[in-house]
Amino acid sequence: MAEAGLLYKNRVMLLTQTFFIKDNKDELLLSAHKYDFDILFFDQMREFVSAVENAEGHTLFVIDLDVLYNMQDDMQQQRRQTMFLSDLLQRLPAHQQYIYLQTVRQGERFLLQQKLVDSNCLAYAEKPISNEVLVDKLFNIFARQQRGESNTIVYLGEDAQFDTQMLSQHDIELLHYQDARSLHIKVKEAQPDIVLIDEKHYLQTEALVRVLKKNIEFDSGREIVMLQHQSTSALSRQALDSGFDEILKSSDADVLTRLLINRINKIRASKDLISRDRATGLLNKIGLQKKAQEWIRRAGREDKSLAYGIIDIDKFKTINDTWGHYFGDIVIKRLSLVLSAQLGERDLLSRFGGEEFVIVFWDCSLDEGKLKLDAMRESFGKVVFEVTPGEFRQFSFSGGIAAYPSCKTENELFLQADAMLYQAKQGGRNQVCTN
Asked: Is the pLDDT confidence value at 60 over 60?
């Protein structure tokens, strides 16, 4: 498996007790390797801290809090003694975040939870937790960190009272707009997550919200928020009755920006429930169709081309029938990681259904898209799977490519790429075809 080890682009560094490593290492490694990440085990604090300091790339840092009660701390001349939580947190490099494993009894202590979440805590989980569940949770965190999605706010007002740099750091784009009567056109073009309307514009054009919401294409998940300067109950009631989802009080730029970031984070979490594939963390069919339509509109405005690819794992039914659906799920997750690793910042990736994936390459011609998809196909073909103990296999996929603006709509792109995928399958599989 030395060759396969080179393919693990993600890794976990786990600080835990020696007996856990002895009893659980092989089984946990096997589960992790199936999902394309490696686990490095540490039972010494100094070695763990050094590894964290020098870590590169996609790495998660996991700490089993049982080390607090029974750990050989090489900082104390190899003598066994209890380590306090404050000692542990002080020694951990502050530029990283950590995932903590704790017992149910530890989880019942609120002050302990408070200290964790205030000290670079990425997440925590309670034990006992099975290897499969732990690995699946870690995989989902890897997938979540690689999404790279941005969100948009359209602000109708005179002066932008926001910290745009802070918004940008959270992948939020602010579009400042000043024409109330064409706001509905701007919203249709930009497809923002939040429409923020200054109360002055609302008072001048009271029908603003009704015009937006009565459009049959209006996204019910989009929030329309009024920025209120005068704190009057009558105006608040009038605005809410007009259709506003929320009212924010005008305040300093820092506070207002943080409120908007919190709202965007809630919108992201809500959208994940309906637009994400739970197994891979990728866009699902609904999420892809919406984002692809948005990308087509944006490409038209910016005079960019798009390459739209569909791929399908070759002989996937045989994989399921021979080694079981559990193994088939492993193949799908490994493929999702191979594809994600080669995406550009504005590319889209979706698990469209079953063993079928869709990729949208931004600012990419048909020929360039074929080269990119071929590179992904070759990378996946190098992944070594252990199908049974000591038996290794490699798998392939076929793909089809279409391009915008030759195809004008998301549906046209899909139908053309799907026809090319069929041609690739009929031509012998393990290839990418274009028209």
From this structure: yes
